[in-house]
# Entry
Amino acid sequence: MTMSLLATVTTQQKLGVAIAAIFIVGWVGYLVAHLRKAGPPPGSEIELAPNRKPYYDDDTLETKKLDRSLGTAVVLLSVVAIGLPAYWVREGQRQVDAQLGFEHRSIHRGSILFLPTDAPGHGAKFGCATCHGAQGQGGVTKATITDTLGRTRQVQWKAPAINNVAYRYSKDSIRAILVYGRAGTPMPAWGTKGGGPMNDQQIDDLVNYLSAPVEEKGLKVSEEQTKKEIAVLVATEAKRIGSLNADGTPNVTGEVLFGANCSRCHTRGWSFNEPEVNAGGRYGPSLRGGATLRQFPQQADMVKFVSVGVEYGQPYGVGGIGQTAGGGMPHFGTLLSEEEILKIVTYERSL
Ligand code: HEC
Ligand code: HEC
# Structure
């Protein structure tokens, strides 16, 4: 009987019993030791209680004790008086740094969204670089277009440089371009509102990436660099229409400047090397047949318009109104000189 009972007791149970036994023995030992120790005789607390001991006399209280208390108060007060302002001195910068850190992280996330979809590394990528170039310097992409007879065919569509888009559009306009894309072009809608795959945060991260200068790990190149890139477009356009000086250098006329800066939106087919000059406008209205003279009877008003662009819903000219919900007519005042704008305007007004 005893044997069978012992056999069913597990090691854990044996250990538990052993520990309990040690506790009980220890506790009993403590009790015995404590009870045997003689405490102070009853009644002695009347003399010994702290509140019954005599306190400092008046002399000590009014000199040493008072000075010490006041001294401590001064020290504590100066800790607060110096410490609080010292804390606030750093607080402004701390907030600036926190804000900067926030922006840097946003720009960084945008730079990842921008990468080709098959780029290595973590995080979702949406392939902006595949069409617009690794540094946003512009590129080409395949597109299928339908001609007037309903036949479809493939063309090479030029994707514009977007390393300078922040010089031409406000942040809100850039956001709208990304959310809704450009219908009828290879540029898809990216925001959920436009039917695309990106949430608001991702769109904001991309807007920040496009708007931040290269030195801050953004995409925006310097104005100087942008002007160089425009000069390349101008030279290409001059060659295309044969506007060359006797020595072969580009002859930069209003027509050439128009082709390099405006045609992709105002001339149908320009983006895939088949400009249909008389077919009307495309994304922006046709500027031919005296349209600009009617919209801007005064040349100076037109120069100003090209320089500042127009926001959605804003009136311009005689009866114009910004039709495009974000990312309509850009402002060119930053990238083109007044002289260049004047050349373009003079050319347009002759059409
Ligand atoms: C399939 C190719 C393609 C992809 C991918 C693409 N784009 Fe575009 N994007 C274009 C084309 C083409 C245009 C010019 C449309 C036109 O002709 O009006 C454009 C226009 C733009 C514009 C307006 C520029 C201007 O001045 O008119 C911005 C900004 C832009 N894209 C940003 C982006 C961003 C950011 C991404 C990635 C989320 C992206 N694009 C992905 C092809 C593409
Ligand atoms: C990214 C596309 C785009 C580019 C590039 C562009 N425009 Fe426009 N433009 C528009 C749109 C869109 C409108 C119509 C107004 C609106 O909805 O914002 C417009 C309107 C205009 C108008 C008013 C026309 C009217 O009759 O109402 C003029 C003039 C004009 N653009 C001149 C220019 C010039 C000059 C350039 C080049 C320096 C240029 N645009 C480049 C998109 C563009």
The pocket of heme C (ligand 2) is lined by residues 261-262, 264-266, 283-285, 287, 291-292, 295, 302, 306, 310, 317, 320, 322-324, 328-330, 332, 344 (CB under 6 Å). The mean pLDDT is 91. The CA atoms of residues 59 and 231 lie 93 Å apart.
